[in-house]
Amino acid sequence: MLQLSLKRNKSAYESYARQLEFPLSAHSKGIDKVCKMLEGNNHLTKQEIKTEFNNLGIELNTSHVTWLVTKAEMEGILCSGADKVKNPTYALIDERITNSRELTKEESLALLATRYFQSHSPATLADFVWWSGLTITEARLAVSLIQDVLIKENYRDTEFIIHSNSPQEKTDDNILHFLPSYDEFLISYKDRTDVLAPEHTSRAFNTFGIFYPVILHNGQIVGNWKKSSRKGEIHVESSFFQSPIKCKKLINTAEKRFKDFLKG
Question: Which has the closest alpha carbon to 175: 214, 212, 219, 235?
């Protein structure tokens, strides 16, 4: 699956690496050293990897380490390891995932399209291109490969694609959720105007690709929320784009769900 996005991601990666004044010639050697550090299921955080480099007499800043491990992830060398006290780690993919198999490009495209439309229907072809990073040609091919299980419907002069196995049941009429930054509800779609009024866009995400925690009420993004801590207790502070939601019970229920989640 990584091969589908490797070419475009690699180009963007190398462009940014040049801005960091981090020679591309040093990347392969750096990745080899990271692999040595992680051998034997030795999962390390980014800071621990940086410290290991320092111990070898190699001074790398955090940005350099970030882009080394990112490149290794893109190439299918590293993957996420086990968290250390809620801090993410990196591990060797061959040690972490022992039963992987190679897919042809068409198999990969079909699987990616299946996963996307099963979990994000209804969505447009443009949404799929945005989410997947595929070219428009590749996205069209992916959709055509699974067309037997797709339903296409027009809404407001736009064609939407629905996977026949996507959830169809109706949710409760009155529900509120605290959505985290980069939640799939927003980030998975190129056009978000059906759930977010254009005048409130800047309060949900900015032009630099930063997404904020938002409040979802009956299918619409209506405000922001943030976590705070006072005297050891977690509190949730809510702000609304327009008039506050009058049903305090909904807000309290959403806050309880969030606190229960933090407790594990």
Answer: 219
**DSSP state at residue 169:** P
CA 226 vs. chain centroid, Å, equals 20
Distance CA 193, CA 189 (A): 10
* Residues forming a β-bridge with 158: 155
Task: Flag whether the pTM goes above 0.90.
Answer: no
Tokens of 4: 């589908």
**pLDDT digits (tens), the chain, 264 positions:** 778 877 777 777 777 667 766 665 667 888 999 999 999 999 999 999 999 999 999 888 888 898 889 889 988 899 999 999 879 999 999 999 877 788 899 999 999 999 999 999 999 999 999 999 899 999 999 999 999 999 999 988 999 999 998 876 666 678 899 999 999 999 999 999 989 999 999 999 998 889 999 999 988 999 999 998 887 788 899 999 987 777 788 999 999 999 888 887
> 186: which 2 tokens?
């927003």
Q: Are 93 and 81 in contact (CB under 8 A)?
A: no
Closest CA to 236 of 202, 211, 261, 218: 261
Longest dimension (CA), the chain: 61
Length of the chain as a residue count: 264
Q: Is 258 exposed, middle or buried (0-12, 13-18, 19+ CB in 10 A)?
A: middle
Q: Is 145 exposed, middle or buried (0-12, 13-18, 19+ CB in 10 A)?
A: middle
